[in-house]
Write a structure and sequence with these properties.
The complex is a heterodimer of chains A (92) and B (523). Chain A has 92 residues and is an alpha/beta fold. Chain A contains two helices and four strands, in the order E-E-H-E-H-E. In chain A, strands 3-2-4 form a three-stranded parallel β-sheet, sandwiched between helices. In chain A, strand 2, helix 1 and strand 3 form a beta-alpha-beta unit. Chain A is extended and about 65 Å long. Chain B has two domains: 143 residues, Glutaredoxin; 304 residues, no CATH class. Classes of the chains: A alpha/beta (92), B alpha+beta (523).
């Protein structure tokens, strides 16, 4: 038997689990713009449509400094503290 | 040699009849480690026989079963020789030489330790253990014999023993590959590979790799994106083994991980971008020679182990520790063969100018790795007919205008690898400096801003509406390909024959993209 050492970061579980689904959106909803050019135009429209459909939900907008880097820790903490749900506009 | 304070570890081994024999340190004992094919060990067997006959409690440990049996038969021994074929006890007792004779007192503490055979010392030691003289003709024994190397320090075996020892520095999760599994196929299936076969990172190979650095194996070198997972020296060493590195390459790999994981270099964006970016590593300093790196013929190509495996090790670290996997966060549209590996050394001695690391603030005798983020190249600059520096500079500039797109200006940088014959062409102009080369290249890329507007031939360029909104000075002005001459990085490499330089085209340079980072290589 050959023994090898794990070359990975050993973070378990390897496959990430989906968060539990609530069935409906309520409370506070974050929309995160990753700062890709023209992403804000799509998200502006999206926000209008969401606001019509979810009149009782508070929508908060956030923007990453740059799409090329992970969101700063402070921004992640801020989004988590101020919201119950998050929609992130991802890449192209 | 003596160390009166050391408490000896108890152990249990089987003798030549398969019976378990323990050393528990409960009575005064002479422990002797021997190896059958060692002439000195054979010389001292009669001493052991005499000690046994005189009633001294002796425990003899032999390093091979066949050898032990041979000695018992040949010398007609009445005492057993314990089987330490796995060498665990020899390793735990730090036996470097056989024979080693250890005198343990009744509390199990080491009173004295002899290595090899020095007759006077052995006589003195044994006289203290027996009342009468030993039945032994000391005169027939040589005055001194040096002994042989213990099997437990044989380089092939020692790394395995060190990896398996209780105080092993290894902490990574162990993965057992079933005997029916092909280990290479298994590693492919686990997703550890970049697509090419990898060397199995067995504990003994990783221990050997760690001998290439004086750092603590558990030192955290960086947090690797996208998972922001900690890259310890040990984890980097595991990936360096898989890449095919030698232990002496490890410090370069470690420095490259440090450089890649800075906010400036931004390995997350580099790996994630759809543009297909990847790091290029340039090594400077005396370590180039020590590692046998290629900086001459085919420096950017295949065939040199250090160049190929150091670059590959960085890529495997990003993949396995950071989690950047194509289809996951790595989203390159076309991919890029440089994502397998891209590392070379600068031929500093062939350069008329200061090498890259000195230009970037390091001492000439320091070892430094510099990471540049490329998206394409090396793009060949085939110019066999320019005759002097300025002509070649503007010729190179024409070629560099194609970076990303001829109408894409002011967003990228370049790593220009100037070949020796081009150096000679440039230096026909006496006193021509590296800075002048950069300045003249930059100047020759200058274009009227109006030529860079989007039109029917190209959607790439300055949008018409944006152009119209700009001040008149901008509209009637000119732009250079790069924002400044600092965005043109110059190194010397390649063979003495051929007027073919190469350019790596950058990605997005600046804080929103990637900035060149140099990192000193520490032992």
């Amino acid at each position: 038997m050959t023994t090898i050492l794990d070359p990975t970061n050993e973070k378990a579980p390897v496959e990430r689990q989906l968060a539990a689904r609530h069935g409906e959106i309520s409370g506070r909803l974050a929309i995160l713009d990753i700062a890709k050019p023209r992403g804000n135009i799509l998200l502006d429209k999206f926000e209008v449509l969401l606001a019509e459909r979810l009149p009782n939900v508070t929508i908060n907008r956030y923007r990453k400094p740059t799409f090329t880097k992970p969101a700063p820790d402070a921004l992640r903490a801020e989004i988590k503290a101020e919201n119950d749900f998050l929609i992130e506009g991802l890449a192209d | 040699m003596s160390d009166s304070a050391q408490l000896l570890a108890p152990f249990s081994l089987t003798d030549n009849s398969g019976v378990d024999v323990s050393f528990d340190g409960a009575q005064q004992t002479l422990l002797c480690f021997i190896k059958e094919d060692c002439p000195t060990c054979r010389t001292i067997v009669p001493v052991l026989k005499a000690l046994d006959a005189a009633g001294v409690n002796i425990v003899v440990v032999g390093q091979t079963v066949i050898g032990n049996n041979k000695l018992i038969e040949e010398f007609n021994l009445s005492f057993p020789i314990l089987n330490d074929e796995k060498l665990k006890v020899s390793f735990a007792y730090d036996i470097e030489t056989v024979p080693t004779l250890i005198h343990a007192d009744k509390d199990g503490k080491q009173v004295e330790r002899q290595e090899g055979f020095v007759k006077a010392d052995w006589q003195a030691l044994t006289q203290g253990l027996v009342d009468a003289d030993l039945e032994l003709d000391w005169d027939r024994l040589p005055d001194w014999r040096p002994g042989c190397g213990s099997l437990s320090v044989d380089p092939i075996i020692a790394d395995k023993l060190r990896a398996e020892a209780e105080n092993s520095p290894l902490r990574a999760r162990k993965i057992e590959i079933a005997p029916a599994d092909d280990e290479f196929e298994f590693m492919f299936d686990q997703g550890f590979s970049d697509g090419l076969p990898i060397v199995p990172p067995t504990p003994e190979r990783v221990i050997r790799m760690l001998s290439g650095t004086s750092r603590d194996p558990q030192e955290v070198i960086a947090k690797v994106a996208p998972n922001l997972a900690e890259a310890t020296v040990e984890k980097i060493a595991i990936n360096a083994v898989m890449a095919g590195c030698k232990p002496e390459y490890l410090p370069v790999v470690i420095a490259s991980v440090q450089a890649a994981c800075t906010d400036e270099f931004n390995i997350h964006g580099v790996m994630a971008t759809t543009m297909g970016a990847s790091p290029v590593m340039v090594v400077n300093g005396p370590i180039r020679e020590k590692l046998g790196m290629n900086m001459k013929l085919s420096a950017l190509g295949q065939g040199n182990r250090a160049n190929a495996t150091i670059g590959r090790a960085l890529r495997l670290v990003i993949r396995n520790i950071g989690g950047a996997v194509p289809g996951g966060t790595e989203r390159s549209t076309l991919g890029n063969p440089m994502k397998f590996t891209m590392c070379f050394a600068e031929w500093e001695e062939r350069s008329p100018w200061e090498p890259l690391h000195v230009e970037r603030g390091f001492e000439a005798d320091e070892n430094v790795v510099t990471l540049f983020c490329m998206t394409s190249g090396p793009t060949l600059i085939a110019d066999q007919t320019s005759l002097e520096g300025s002509q070649l500079a503007s010729s190179m500039a024409m070629s560099l205008q194609s970076t990303h797109h001829p109408k894409s200006y002011m967003s990228s940088d370049t790593l220009l690898v100037v070949c020796p014959e081009h150096v000679d062409t440039i230096m026909r102009t006496k006193g021509y400096t590296k800075q002048r080369l950069k300045d003249e290249i930059l100047e020759a890329t200058r274009k009227p801003t109006r030529e860079l507007i989007q039109d029917e031939q190209s959607g790439v360029g300055i949008p018409k509406e944006k152009f119209a909104s700009m001040p008149e000075a901008f509209q009637n002005g000119q732009l250079t390909k790069f924002a400044s001459a600092k965005d043109i990085h110059v190194v010397i490499a390649g063979s003495d024959a051929g007027k073919f330089s190469g350019a790596f085209h950058g990605w997005v340079t600046g804080p929103g993209g990637s900035i060149v980072v140099s990192q000193k290589i520490e032992d």
